[in-house]
Specification:
alpha/beta, 7-stranded parallel β-sheet, 9 helices
Length: about 270
């Protein structure tokens, strides 16, 4: 299956793609999200489950795409939302393909794979995803999660940008958890920003996205926007059209690696950190 295009403006501007290999989310169930979810609304519209699901049939899509691309990973889900429940023993990811089809795809990545070794835990699925990323050094992959504390459990290749979402001051701890990652570029999405951000620190952050809420329409907090522009004056900031009115919505900056698609060196290894 091909990678898909997106109407999200900052992805569209760099001719980027979406790789929705994991869809669905438990962030409301686990208490880290209290906002209306556009992805869940789409799933409900088409009468599809919004439980976290691993789409094995999409796993190899980046390998098939030979031209260097900017690829946003699982924008219609959160790769770590079920990882929390994996540790509590409550659930693992649903999988869309049969065991035989999973094994066929797995053997393309790992020729020594066996049916006995197949594992649908959230950890195993994320490791599968990262093995594909490691085989595609020509691409730049952008991840976004509300559970950035789990990033450190995995070794992400150098061509990955790790991101998190912040909406309120109570979410600022996510930036601190994101900043614990020293080997990848980091980005933060404030979509939308509801409050002032006078205590925020953006050290080590390489890109900031600021957006509004679509349904119902809510623009980002004006003072918070100005504070971000001040604290992030040395950081590329992209402000979506729905975030604000006036001159600030004309600020649409990209990091060079995203705008021009620089190709990183292939990583030496991949896997879960012990």
């Amino acid at each position: 299956m091909p990678l898909t295009k997106s109407n999200i403006e900052y992805i569209k501007e760099v001719n980027g793609y979406c790789w929705n290999v994991i869809t669905g989310c438990f962030n409301k169930k686990n208490g880290v999200c209290k906002l209306p979810c556009w992805a869940e609304k789409i799933a409900n519209r088409y009468k599809k489950s919004f439980n976290p699901t691993f789409h094995f049939e999409k796993l190899l899509d980046p390998i098939k795409h030979k031209k260097p691309a900017r690829i946003w990973v699982s924008l219609t889900g959160d790769i770590f939302s079920s990882h929390f429940f994996y540790y509590t023993g409550e659930c693992s990811l649903q999988v869309t393909s049969s065991d035989e089809e999973q094994l066929r795809i797995e053997k393309i990545i790992n020729p020594e794979a066996t049916m006995e070794g197949m594992n649908c835990s959230s950890t195993a699925c994320i490791c599968e995803l990262l093995q594909v990323v490691a085989k595609c050094p020509q691409h730049t992959f952008l991840f976004l999660t509300k559970r950035p504390e789990f990033y450190k459990e995995f070794k992400f290749p150098e061509n990955c940008w790790l991101g998190t979402t912040v909406n309120y001051n109570e979410d600022i701890h996510r930036i601190k958890e994101l900043q614990e990652n020293k080997y990848n570029k980091l980005w933060v999405s404030f979509e939308p920003l509801y409050e002032n951000m006078d205590k925020i620190k953006l050290d080590g952050i390489s890109w900031v996205i600021l957006g509004g809420q679509t349904q119902p329409k809510v623009k980002s907090n004006t003072m918070g926007t100005l504070q971000l522009l001040d604290k992030g004056k040395d950081i590329p900031i992209y402000i979506k059209d729905n975030a604000s009115s006036g001159t600030t919505c004309k600020i649409k900056n990209f990091p060079p690696e995203i705008e021009y698609g620089e190709v990183p060196e292939p990583p030496e290894s991949i896997g879960r950190r012990i």
